Amino acid sequence: MPKRFVVAASEFTELPRFPVGFELAEALTAAARDLHGTGTPDDTMNTAVTLAVRLLPEAEHAGIAEIQRGGRLRSLAWTDETVRFAAEPRPGGHTPHPDWERLWTTPVVRTDDSEADGGGNVLSGLGLRSVLALRLRADRRRLTVLTAYARKPQAFDEDATRIGRLFTAHVSLALDSATVREQLTEAMRTRDLIGQATGILMERLDIDAAGAFESLVKASQRENVKLRDLARRIVDANSAAGGRGVTER
User: Fold this and answer.
1) What's the distance, CA 74 to chain centroid?
2) SS3 content of the chain, % helix, strand, coil (to 5)
3) What pLDDT score was predicted for residue 18?
4) What is the pLDDT of residue 15?
5) How far apart are alpha carbons 231 and 177 in whole angstroms?
6) H or E element in which residue 132 lies
7) Average pLDDT for runs of 10 along the chain of length 249
8) What's the pLDDT score for residue 52?
9) Quick one: which of 161, 136, 125 has its CA closest to 64?
10) What is d(CA 52, CA 81) in angstroms, rounded to the nearest whole number?
11) What one-character-per-residue DSSP string does 134-159 give?
12) Which run of H or of E encompasses 219?
């Protein structure tokens, strides 16, 4: 008989409650709905680590980290401080998870027991015996990893790995969507900001829109400042001076 995936409603205290008896596909659909309902990439990742603990069998902690070529490491989301500490870079630039490097070429890395070689590493020192690391994103420069942890050895079996890969596929899609939304929102804000700065320069210098924009670009190049940042400076200075007749949108 095929194994059924059951999610207890009581396990989801901070999320929409899932009815008891949902099978895996339905549970993942509900999780995807929560992921796509987030507003920013940070919100998406915070929701993802919370869901990972609820969805992955035996998972007790979860975190998301970004690894850059050369070993530079940055924690992006975590369920608790234990996970945050577990993902912090160590003296000498070494990562606490040497197996993470393998995720550049393989989508999953599983550690059955961090004490198998006598312990003495970061994970065993924190009591984290089992690790399931799943690749979320990878390009030439950086790697984003979702990692689930458990305090007992050999906690993550093939079923947990399969569920983890399905779940991270949903997380990756939601993260890409949230990133695009954030970029579009920022682009609209930047366009509006540059429009306001151009209007201010038109009034102050008594020039047309093309001339004002050209003046803004030249000042940006001369001062080696991003156009957006220079525009914000002009708009903020104008607001502090009382607007001088320029209406801020």
Assistant:
1) 11
2) 50, 15, 35
3) 40
4) 38
5) 28
6) strand 130-138
7) 35 40 79 93 96 94 89 88 77 66 90 81 87 91 93 94 94 93 86 91 91 89 86 89 49
8) 96
9) 136
10) 16
11) EEEEE-SSEEEEEEEEESSTT---HH
12) helix 209-223
Tokens of 31: 């999780």
Q: What angle do CA 103, 104, 106 make, to 5 degrees?
A: 50
Q: What are the tokens at 208? A: 């047309």
Residue 150 sits at φ, ψ, to 5 deg, of -140, 155
For the purposes of burial, counting CB atoms within 10 Å of the CB of 80, is it exposed (0-12), middle (13-18) or buried (19 or more)? middle
Distance of CA 175 to the CA centre of its chain: 7
Which among 62, 75, 54 has a CA at the least distance from the CA of 128? 62
Q: Which residue has the tokens 């680590």?
A: 49
CB of 100 closer than 8 Å to CB of 132:
no
Contact 148, 62 (CB under 8 A): yes
Residue 62 in tokens: 């979860």
pLDDT at 100: 82
pLDDT at 12: 39
**pLDDT of amino acid 243:** 57
- Candidates 45, 21, 10; CA nearest to 179 is 45
Amino acid at the residue 248: E
- Comparing C-alpha atoms, which of 146, 61, 67 is closest to residue 108? 146
Q: What angle do CA 135, 57, 110 make, to 5 degrees?
A: 40
CB 249 within 8 A of CB 243: no
In this prediction the pTM is: 0.73
